Amino acid sequence: MAWVGSALVAIGVALDIVATRRFEASFDVIDDSSMANQASVLLIAGFAATFAGLAFVSTALLRGLARVLAPVSVSARLAARDAARNVGRTVPVIAAIGATLAIATAVVVTNDQDIARWQGERDFQAPLGDGRLYLDMDATSTTAGELVEAVRSVVPDATITEVAAWDTGTVEPGTLVPEVAYPRELLCLHQGRTAREIAEDPRCDDDVAWNSNVAVGGAAQLSAITGQEPSQAALDALAGGEAVAFNPDQVTDGALTIQLWDYAAGNYPSYGDEAGPTNKPSGEFGLPAVVERTAGGQTRAFAGIISPATAAELGYPVVPSTVYVHVDGGIDQKQEARINAALTTAGGGWLRVERLYETPQYQLLLAYAALAVALLVAGAATGVALGLARADARRDDFTLASLGASPRLARASAGWQGAIIVAVASAMGLATGLMTTWTLSYQSLDMQFSPPWLWLGAALIALPSVVGLLAAAFTKPVRATHYRLAA
């Protein structure tokens, strides 16, 4: 049966390789999911063939282990012999444990890949460690002052800065809404392009931040948004009626292009792939601007900032928009939770604290749960197999005990047999799970195959060791029985 297993493993590996090529090819076609669907089917078939093949090969692996472990000790030799001799009982147990470990490996590795990918994403709406509270005045009757007081009730020493912005929520008929234009040649267009072309286009980088609204305020507001002391050039620009832009791509010929849109008439700016004649602004003008880079990279909160005097000259109404909360040393998670509880009690609002990506608790719990289930299944299945094995070996145990063998021999033999079964199953499950996640990593252009080798190696050693120790601890050795014969 070993040759059948080897053939199935080879077929499974080949199917997985073809699946990766199908996934890669799917990135070079436009609006066609057939290749990705084919790859998914091949992936499932490859998993099944590889696992079935390894299950067949496990018989040969057990026999090989029996020869390798024979010189180690009597208990190891007996355990390996029993495991290899009773493959009809051992192989189904190995298959059950291996299947569980394959799934657990896929969960843990996929989790690790997702965490690694998310850690590289930055989507800051405020300086790192600060909080940003968006004021949706249309959705609540709570005033900005009441929300600020709710925040201050939790962090009384915080620096709280209110920022106003153009009112784009309440638009009267006939009013033209100003928005900062974004050059069309810098837009990420999707129509008629493949996924690979989009991924390789720097204009489609998720880290590129841009916005169409401007903040209204002075030096304090500029400092709160950027997370640093304003430069003299920025202060001079505000004082001189100019704008301070945060994204240099939105500055053309030293000015922010302000477009005017008739929202009430249904004319909105379109940044999609088909901007037709109905998407032309009703007017536009240039507002001189200087560029001020933020401390933590580009901010997505605003395109720039103008002074209240400049906003008054432009004539479009402004409303309270955002509250920035700064605490020396950063706002920790407990403070964030208490602040949001206070805001909920006050009537609305949610403070978002910007911090580097932290692994969510559910991700960790999912990984721990997968490992716990694997250990539980391994222990239970091995326990059943060992119970049957020890029943078969009872005659041998009596013979050895009568010859003066130590009671520890039966315990050691059970421990070795449990470790051997779980070691073979672990290797089989880890190999199949890694092959599957390697293929799955080709489903996305931004996912890398980077398994937590240390964790997987530790599991490969720890799982058989734990099960082996438990098997030895719970095995009850037999005692020699002496009979007195009548003369």
Structural features, described:
The protein is α+β, with helices and mostly antiparallel strands and 487 residues long. The protein is built from 14 helices and eleven strands. It has helices at residues 2-26, 34-69, 74-85, 87-119, 144-154, 195-199, 219-226, 232-239, 308-314, 333-346, 361-392, 394-402, 408-440, 453-474, and strands at residues 131-134, 159-166, 177-180, 214-216, 243-245, 251-252, 255-261, 283-291, 304-306, 318-326, 351-353.
List keywords for this structure.
487 residues, alpha+beta, 11% strand, elongated
Order of helices and strands: HHHHEHEEHEHHEEEEEHEHEHHHH
Rg for CA atoms:
34 Å
User: What's the number of extended β-strand segments?
Assistant: 11
The major sheet is characterized as: 11 strands, mixed
Q: What proportion strand?
A: 5-15%
State the end-to-end distance. 56 Å
Helix content: 40-55%
Q: What coarse outline follows from CA principal-axis ratios?
A: elongated
Number of helices: 14
Show unreliable segments: none
Give the averaged pLDDT, no decimals.
80
Q: Structural class per helix/strand content?
A: alpha+beta
Oligomer: single chain
How is this fold's topology laid out?
Blueprint: H1 2-26, H2 34-69, H3 74-85, H4 87-119, E1 131-134, H5 144-154, E2 159-166, E3 177-180, H6 195-199, E4 214-216, H7 219-226, H8 232-239, E5 243-245, E6 251-252, E7 255-261, E8 283-291, E9 304-306, H9 308-314, E10 318-326, H10 333-346, E11 351-353, H11 361-392, H12 394-402, H13 408-440, H14 453-474
Parallel strand pairs: 4-9, 5-8
Antiparallel strand pairs: 1-10, 1-11, 2-4, 2-10, 3-7, 5-9, 6-7, 7-8
